[in-house]
Amino acid sequence: MRYAETGFSLEVDLSRGNIEKTQTDPGLTELHLGGLGTSARTLWDRVPPETDPLSPDNLLIFSAGLLCGTPAIGANRTIVSSFSPQTRLMAFSMMGGFFAPELKYAGYDSLVISGKSPELVYLWINNGKVEIRDASHLRGKGSVETAEQIRAELKEPRAQVASIGLAGENRVFFASIEQGRSSASRGGLGAVMGAKGLKAIAVRGTGDIQVARPAEYIELCNQVLDYIKVRQDNPIPGVMPILARLGSPQEMAVHDEKWHTENFMWGNSRLRRKGFWTDEIAKQWTHSLESMRKRLISCYNCPLKCGATIAPPGLPTYMMKCFSKLTYTMAAMSDLDFGLRIAQRATEYGVDAFSTPQVMAFALELYEAGILTDADMPGFPSANDERFFWLLDRIVRREGIGDILADGTHWAAEKIGKGASGYAHNTIKKHEQLPLKLGMLNPIYFLMYSTGEKINITQIEGNFPQAPFLKKEEREAFVKDWVQVPDDRFKRWLLEWEPRGEKSIPNYPDVEATCEIVNWQEQMHYIDDALGLCAGLSSFPLKPPYHLHNLPRFISAGAGIDMDEEALKRIAARNRNMVRAVNVRRGMRREDEKPPADHWKNRFPDLEAGLLDAYYKFKGWDGRGIPTVESLNGLGLDFVAKEFKERGILAKEEEKVP
Amino acid sequence: MNAGRKTKKIKTIRIDVEKCNGCRACEVICSSFHSAPKYSGVNPARSRIRVVRDPLKDIYVPVYAGEYTAAECTGRDRYVIAGKEYDECAFCRASCPSRDLFKEPDSGLPLKCDMCESDPPLSEPMCVKWCITDALTFEEREVEETGGETLEEMEVGLEDLAKRHGLERLTEAVARMAKNK
Predict the structure, then answer these.
(1) Best label site of A212, A295, A358, B74, fewest CB within 10 Å?
(2) Which of B21, B39, B57 sits opposite A305 (nearest CB)?
(3) What span, in angstroms and rounded, lies between the C-alpha atoms of B34 and B118?
(4) Which residues of B touch A70 (CB under 8 A)?
(5) Averaged pLDDT, A93-105
(6) Pair (A308, A254) in one structural domain
(7) Mean of pLDDT values over A601-614
């Protein structure tokens, strides 16, 4: 009997049209739990490092986390993993919504897609019955439109559909996979799906998921629910409102955007607009959101309302979440009315709302600098807002200049030349980042930006406050009920952290503390990504309901796998090293691990090098960022060490490790 | 209080469709509570509450399983409420042949909400407890017992029968029924 998981994976080879339901090894669950951990292992085992991300040999894996489909609140994440056409590294993106639980109820923990279909198709998973169906009539259709049409033609309104739009079909390097109120946006996973000739996946399941120790498990769930209620009634004082509550930042609910609009950068992460937020603008933007927002909505089995249904006048309704509310607006230096309208089109096209606005703003900068001219962009409109619609239309069709821009700022700048690279300034590992430029280097964020392999800061930060509290009393109040910390040292580091002076950034937290804080925050994300928990209830907010101390009990009672904190930390480390191993085998090295050069004005090369050295050592990696034989063997990843030696990535026994 | 009238307590779940966030936690906990052993399994397809959802049309209707009916309705109407069009089935509690709601997915046997009957009794049904957005709230109401048909009402019916069949035949029929009992 398998608990929490189904014990089966669905293998679909689109080249041969072969479909198989395969039983998975329970030993792998004990090693990796599920979700990201198991997917990283599959990519290591089955995709050779030379594989082109858009080739049939690449795999596209949809994996439900271990706890998805159980009553655990917010356990609804589908972890989509593959290789990114943009970074050429492993891409993994989490989507909420309703897909993962449905896949579990249909009888599968994961769906592994290989090959490439000769014709555009979609997959219909109806419990044990799985069909590859013609999708030629859906070619060019929007992602939301596609999902609606598939549900209608299957006469199954309760099927959950993950689909791509035009961007994915045309292999735009930052194409997303859209699903319900959610999406797997980062890393260009939509392009991989498009390259496989797969327009959509519809799933419907009516089977059971069992838990090992029911009474104990439901008691844990009830505790989480009770804590959520308490936490919602008691927002954390002294931090900005979007960080005071649980969930992802409540962008769909809030009207006051002073903090984002005055601290984040406009254009292509270029311009800071102090004093932007006036009463007049507040009134106008409040009206835009109020008039278009129909309802605040949630993912499966979660009371937090992080998303919204948006109905712009004269346009189809779509679902939006989080910071995508502002990314288009700010990139285009426009207003919220524009932002909510263009996001409708972008959602149908299926593109990442972080990368896309920046790519478009980058094109506009190049045009204004005379690097791109009217000859490159015939018919480029003169009105600002229209220019962004024009660019978006061309990017997703790979038409003219759009074909170059569709690879993202890094690759586009290389192709365009003429100094364009100077404008592609906001990437890490060739992937566009949050538009944020700051003054003083923060050691915690330096390490997270440099070494995070999700290549997205929001997916590694979280449980430790972003900045010190101003007053000592505030710190003391904060740590009083801070039960989530791994141990009391973390409280001390926060208590002593000052906004200025000796115990402030960049020198405080000190190197040792910084390593521990970064490690803890990342560890939580890796646990969530294996269990399928929403980061918004666990690794992302301050003082979340899920933490290191209760998660082992969820795994024990839910999956029947004996677990304690040490064992869970070890699994998180194993999964972390598995992802790193996959990327190292593809060539990722220390040189690739750096934030955008202009992320902070004040940089400290020696301190930064020391931080990176210390963190690599802390993680059991050598000076190049490669896991050592000892640490790999210690995590039971001997096969990785062996292959590293065979490939000459790590020195053989007789040679010295550099 | 009117001494001649009896009252009884009715358990009521008040459903505020405007507050529903569509998360289906009610389905999760309902199917979990009713699994055997209790809380051992989850399967929303077995839930006795289902959220009829159409997010793009902003339709969210939590509906509870009621009586089984062998026949489907001949006409199924559409309601337009506050500009939104609902299929009549969206509000219907029946386990009926026209849809797969409120039937065990494997056996096809009908499901019915039992307000989480339990010993000792719960303070409120589990779906209400887990709906912290308050789309579902629980209340107990006192209503007057209707107390069944009175003798006078029965006599009206008998008079009709006597008119149709003649009093003599009716008496014979009643006598025969009494004898056979």
Answers:
(1) B74
(2) B21
(3) 10
(4) 42
(5) 98
(6) yes
(7) 98
The secondary structure of A483-533 as a DSSP string is TTSSSTHHHHHHHH--SSSTTSTTTSS-HHHHHHHHHHHHHHHHHHHHHTB
Q: Which residues in chain B have Cβ-Cβ distances shorter than 8 Å to A303?
A: 21, 23, 25, 131-133
Q: What is the CATH number of the domain that holds A605?
A: 1.10.599
Amino acid residing at A244: A
pLDDT of residue A459: 83
Tell me if A302 and B25 make a contact (CB, 8 A cut-off).
Answer: yes
Query: A411, A430, A465 — which closes off a domain?
Result: A411
Which tens digit of pLDDT belongs to each residue from A474-509? 999 999 999 999 999 999 999 999 999 999 999 999
Do residue B40 and residue B118 come from a single domain?
A: yes
Token pair, residue A433, equals 């980042």
pLDDT tens digits along A546-579: 999 999 999 999 999 999 999 999 999 999 999 9
Which residue among A211, A303, A309 sits closest to B55, beta carbon to beta carbon? Answer: A309
**Residues from chain B contacting residue A206 (CB–CB below 8 Å):** 43, 45, 105
ipTM of the complex: 0.96
Q: Where are the beta strands (DSSP E) in A259-341?
A: 293-297, 307-310, 318-321
Predicted local confidence at residue B152, as pLDDT: 82
Q: Across chain B, what does the average pLDDT equal? A: 92
Q: By CA distance, what is A210's nearest residue in B? A: B41
Longest dimension (CA), chain A: 71
Residue B90 forms part of a structural domain: yes
Q: Between A59 and A322, where is the model more confident? A: A59
Residue numbers in B near A296 (CB within 8 A): 21
- H helices of chain B, in order, are 25-33, 126-130, 151-165, 167-180
**Bond preceding residue B37 cis, omega within 30 of 0:** yes
Cα–Cα dist A156/A459, whole Å: 34
Across the interface, whether the CB atoms of A181 and B43 are under 8 A apart is answered no
* Burial (0-12, 13-18, 19+ Cβ within 10 Å), A15: middle
- Domain of residue A351 covers 239-411
CA distance A432 to A409: 7
Q: Which letter, b or e, does each residue of B65-99 get, where b requires 16 or more Cβ atoms within 10 Å of its Cβ?
A: bbeeeeeeeeeeeeeeeeeeebbebbebbbbbeee
Let me know whether B37 and B115 are in one domain: yes
pLDDT band at B151 (very low <50, low <70, confident <90, very high): confident
Q: How far apart are CA A210 and CA A306, in angstroms?
A: 28
Confidence of residue B1 (pLDDT cuts 50, 70, 90): very low
Q: How far apart are CA A185 and CA A282, in angstroms?
A: 29
Same domain, yes or no: B57 and B128: yes
Total of domains in chain B: 2
B24 at interface of A, judged by CB pairs closer than 8 A: yes
**pLDDT (average), residues A438-464:** 94
Q: Which domain holds residue B11?
A: 7-144
Tell if the CB–CB gap between A71 and B42 is shorter than 8 Å: yes
Q: Note whether B23 contacts A: Cβ–Cβ < 8 A.
A: yes
Region B53-82 average pLDDT: 94
Please check whether residues B58 and B131 belong to one and the same domain. Answer: yes
Query: Which among B22, B38, B42 has the least Cβ separation from residue A208?
Result: B42
| The pLDDT value given to residue B4 | 62
pLDDT value of position A359: 98
Q: Are residues A536 and A494 in the same domain?
A: yes
pLDDT digits (tens, 9 = 90+) for A426-437: 999 999 999 999
For A12-50, write each residue's pLDDT tens digit: 999 999 999 999 999 999 999 999 999 999 999 999 999
For residue B133, the distance in angstroms to the closest alpha carbon of chain A comes to 6
Task: For residue A323, give the nearest of A277, A261, A280 by alpha carbon.
Answer: A261
**A598 contacts A269 by C-beta, under 8 angstroms:** no
CA distance A123 to chain B (A): 22
Q: What is the mean pLDDT of chain A?
A: 97
Q: Is the residue at B125 inside a domain?
A: yes
